[in-house]
Specification:
By secondary structure, this protein is of the alpha/beta class. The protein is 35% helix and 24% strand. S-adenosylmethionine is lined by residues 3-4, 11, 23, 26, 50-53, 74-76, 79, 101-104, 121-123, 126-127.
């Protein structure tokens, strides 16, 4: 497993005293991500988080946006266990138990239909371009009409890496698998349009990250 250590800092979860995973990086960017989401999406409906990791983001989102039913998910058993631990320590009725989801596999959208919001934080640099296309096509199918997707993480700008931290991190990821690494913002915008999404905004976020706000049309 590779973690995000661009200029936002290390995203290596550590084990806390209760045996749960805890990510210092998720702690740092949590409030800004919660604020962005709170002012972007409607305050009701169903939301799916892909690659929830330690669950720190969804716990805060669930506590703040109580009219939304939140579904955490991840591919990794340890992270699912950790989210379960977090949820047993903090009972938040509008957050469902986490589920196992490999978001790069064809067909998962049929199990999670009519989502009003899908959230993806710090995943796309860890999967291939082909997997990104499958993921976004499944996201399109899983979303209800007018549903939103927010994708947050480190990206190239017009094909270029724009900080030393990003250059180093991208190189490191590629060492483990040449097909992984940062995606280009322009290629993503083309992909959104090919799939039928409406691109609402791209926002510069702290630590050289980007947030893409995209909507499925009616
Ligand atoms: C860098 S961590 C980000 C976790 C969390 N979103 C955050 O920002 O703190 C990447 C996460 O993606 C998950 N992941 C990797 N490949 C995945 C896949 N194909 N489908 C779903 N989750 C995946 C990992 O298990 C891990 O929890």
């Amino acid at each position: 497993m590779i973690f995000n250590n661009n200029s936002e800092g290390l995203n290596i979860p550590i084990v806390d005293v209760n045996g749960s995973l805890y990510s210092p990086s998720a702690n740092r960017n949590c409030s800004i991500i919660v604020e962005l989401i709170s002012k972007t999406i409607p305050n009701s409906g169903k939301a799916l988080e892909i690659a929830s990791g330690t669950g720190q983001h969804i716990i805060q989102l669930g506590s703040k946006l109580r009219q939304i039913t939140w579904q955490p998910s991840d591919i990794d058993k340890e992270r699912i266990q950790s989210i379960n631990n977090l949820l047993s320590d903090n009972v938040i009725e509008n957050i469902n138990p986490p589920c196992h989801l490999d978001a790069t596999k064809d067909g998962w959208s049929s199990k999670y239909p009519n989502q009003n919001f899908i959230l993806i934080i710090n995943l796309l640099h860890l999967i291939t371009l082909k997997e990104t296309k499958t993921l976004l096509s499944e996201v399109f199918s899983a979303l209800a009409p007018k549903g939103f997707i927010i994708i947050y993480g480190p990206f190239m700008r017009k094909g270029k890496l724009t900080s030393k931290g990003d250059v180093d991190f991208h190189k490191n990821i590629k060492k483990s698998n040449i097909k992984l690494g940062y995606k280009n913002d322009i290629s993503l915008l083309k992909l959104f349009s090919t799939l039928g999404f409406l691109h609402q905004k791209t926002i510069e976020m702290p630590a050289n990250n980007l947030a893409f706000i995209i909507q499925k049309p009616i």
